[in-house]
Fold:
Amino acid sequence: MEQVPCVHCGKFFIPRNRSQNYCTEADCQRARKTAWQRYKMKIDVDYRTQQQPILEPSPINLCSLLLTTGFLKVILNVILIGRKQRHAKSNSKRPGYHSSPD
Structure:
């Protein structure tokens, strides 16, 4: 069998069968799976209804995930640092305000 270009990356490869359009690279296989899932969601009503709970995480699960990964703590720290910096800038512009006495 002769080499054919991969639909995703364009590299030439020897297909295992005539219907293989994607090479064996991980990115290309991921793209193949994503394309198949899009097609399935568009065409198959049963598949779409089964996947709906997976695609829409509940707020409880999302909050617990954020808390366990520490992501929420990082975001809150970034917000607080930004507030402190803005507060310091606005106080330094006030006339008669000095951060340290002379």
In short: The CA atoms of residues 41 and 48 lie 5 Å apart. The chain has a mean pLDDT of 80. The chain has two domains: 1-56, 58-102. DSSP finds four helices and two strands in the chain.
